[in-house]
Amino acid sequence: MPTVAPFDIEGHVVAAHFLGDTPFFANASGTIHRLDSGEKVTEAHQGLLTCIRDLHSPSLISGGEDGKVVRIAADGTATVLAEAPRKWISVVAGGPQGAVAYAHGKSSFVRQNDGTIKEFKEERSVEGLAFATKGLRIAAARYNGVTLHWVATSGAPVDLEWKGAHTGVTFSPDGRFLVTTMQENALHGWKLDGKPGENRHMRMTGYPAKVKSLSWSPKGKWLASSGAPAAIVWPFSSKDGPMGKAPLELGTRANILVTQVAFHPAEEVLAIGFVDGMILGVRIADQKEALLRRPGKGAITGMSWSANGRLLAFSSEAGDCGVVDISA
Which of 53, 109, 241, 304 could serve as a FRET partner for 218 with CA atoms 20 to 30 Å apart? Predict the structure, then answer.
């Protein structure tokens, strides 16, 4: 049976991440808590809005109501990378070679490791950012679609249009697909490696609630999503992705919404967090379920696996966080 080590933090905790074997928890008040031979606290923001793990370096990247973009190192050191006074930074992304993207209003920005900053202007507000898997290219989600920008070269931007408000964006690990979350209860996707003129759109609809969490399986064969009383997991292994295929529905619980999903780093095993604080682990191959955590005080707001896949950190909107040891 998995064991759960609880860790209570006062207030709304927006994210949980691992750097190495050390779990980090980001509080909406602006503090970053880590369990490293006891609890250690980093004052990162006056009001924290987003905190992600940088997949290209052992650090976290956060944005706040104070207009700051901050990198938090594994030892808790906070470095301010950019400041936009009187702006809220709720969108950040980490890229290769120390690059960081962030957005406010109708502009997205990419800060290179040498401190130079490049601005990309949109016609509508930027709601989501993602770096392409290979190369310095960013996707900016906005109203009526996504714009792809080349960061290091002067290539013309590419507009991917689809009516509606696009609130988040992600590239598949192999770079063949781009998927957005939408203000309506749906996902939308584009096939990026098709021939010119091909119908490259993918509509993924039928959710009873907005999709706020996405997670790719280790090799990109599956994309898991929240927003339903089960984790909705779309197949992406064929050349056309999920087009014409039904998704898997994992961990179904009647009328209890999934709020977070997180694939194991090596296995096709999905952690599913629910609005009542419960967490299930489900194996794709046979859909076998394992209870990782019983219901708690608040909805699950973040989950992250350690690099070795033995530990799962989780956060909740009520501050009842913790670490699950699945090897116990």
Answer: 109
